[in-house]
């Protein structure tokens, strides 16, 4: 294992202009979850088909969501952070 001099800091995927950080608060079933977004809104987010069997999403996971532009209370999940990556985002002040 090599240390890059910053205590193991990794370059993480950051939100693009239409994405926000969110935390999963409730599993609803049927590939849907409730998320609390960094912009203060609570949305129903959809787990897209390409993530369903490959990436397991659980409560308290930190994810990136892309809110729907035609229906603001819904969103699509675009990325899930590992626990260590979420801890790094908290340390760097990107999320609470």
TrEMBL record:
<dbReference type="InterPro" id="IPR018104">
    <property type="entry name" value="TIF_eIF-1A_CS"/>
</dbReference>
<dbReference type="InterPro" id="IPR012340">
    <property type="entry name" value="NA-bd_OB-fold"/>
</dbReference>
<dbReference type="GO" id="GO:0003743">
    <property type="term" value="F:translation initiation factor activity"/>
</dbReference>
<comment type="similarity">
    <text>Belongs to the eIF-1A family.</text>
</comment>
<keyword id="KW-0648">Protein biosynthesis</keyword>
<feature type="domain" description="S1-like">
    <location>
        <begin position="8"/>
        <end position="82"/>
    </location>
</feature>
<protein>
    <recommendedName>
        <fullName>Translation initiation factor 1A</fullName>
    </recommendedName>
</protein>
<dbReference type="InterPro" id="IPR001253">
    <property type="entry name" value="TIF_eIF-1A"/>
</dbReference>
<dbReference type="GO" id="GO:0003723">
    <property type="term" value="F:RNA binding"/>
</dbReference>
<keyword id="KW-0396">Initiation factor</keyword>
<dbReference type="InterPro" id="IPR006196">
    <property type="entry name" value="RNA-binding_domain_S1_IF1"/>
</dbReference>
<dbReference type="Pfam" id="PF01176">
    <property type="entry name" value="eIF-1a"/>
</dbReference>
<comment type="function">
    <text>Seems to be required for maximal rate of protein biosynthesis. Enhances ribosome dissociation into subunits and stabilizes the binding of the initiator Met-tRNA(I) to 40 S ribosomal subunits.</text>
</comment>
């Amino acid at each position: 294992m090599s240390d890059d001099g910053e205590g193991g800091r990794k370059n993480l995927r950051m939100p693009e202009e239409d994405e926000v950080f969110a935390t999963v608060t409730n599993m609803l079933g049927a590939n849907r979850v409730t998320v609390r977004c960094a912009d203060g809104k609570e949305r129903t987010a959809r787990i897209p088909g390409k993530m369903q069997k490959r990436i397991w999403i659980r409560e308290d996971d930190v994810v990136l969501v892309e809110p729907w532009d035609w229906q603001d209370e819904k969103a699509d999940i675009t990325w899930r952070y590992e626990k260590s990556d979420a801890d790094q985002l908290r340390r760097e002040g990107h999320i609470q």
